[in-house]
């Protein structure tokens, strides 16, 4: 199981899902209506390291963070 956490204004509780790659995570999240609208806009980190490699292999206990864009001033 990997933990998927949603930061900022996504306002979604963390999930634990079975996934062996980031592509598996993306496919699972696309089926959740409250989240799928965010996916194209967000960055992704695995264990606090930014990535955009959907073929990245995940292992049990990994943490995937979904990071929405932010504005600052």
Summarize the main sheet: 5 strands, mixed
CATH topology assignment? Ubiquitin-like (UB roll)
Q: Can you write the helix and strand succession as a string?
A: EEHHEEE
Q: How big is the Rg?
A: 12 Å
**Whole-number total of structural domains:** 1
DSSP summary: helix tally: 2
Indicate the overall shape. Answer: globular
Number of E strands: 5
Low-confidence segments, given as residue ranges, are none
CATH-level-2 architecture: Roll
Structural class: alpha+beta
Trace the largest sheet across and list its strands.
2-1-5-3-4
Give an overview of the whole structure.
The structure is a single chain. By secondary structure, the chain is α+β, with helices and mostly antiparallel strands. It has one domain (2-67): Ubiquitin-like (UB roll) (Roll). The chain is built from 2 helices and 5 strands, in the order E-E-H-H-E-E-E. The protein has helices at 22-30, 33-36; strands spanning 2-6, 15-17, 43-46, 49-51, 63-67. Strands 2-1-5-3-4 form a 5-stranded mixed sheet, covered by helices on one side. A hairpin with a 2-residue loop joins strand 3 and strand 4. The longest helix is centred in the middle third of the chain and has 9 residues, at 22-30. The radius of gyration is 12 Å and the shape is globular. It starts with a strand and ends in a 6-residue tail after the last strand. The model has no long low-confidence stretch (mean pLDDT 92).
């Amino acid at each position: 199981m990997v933990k998927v956490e949603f930061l900022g204004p996504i306002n979604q509780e963390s999930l634990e899902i079975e996934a062996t790659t980031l592509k598996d995570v993306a496919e699972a999240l696309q089926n959740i209506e409250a989240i799928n609208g965010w996916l194209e806009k967000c960055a992704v980190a695995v264990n606090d390291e930014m990535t955009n490699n959907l073929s990245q292999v995940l292992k049990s206990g990994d943490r995937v963070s979904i990071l929405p864009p932010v504005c600052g001033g």
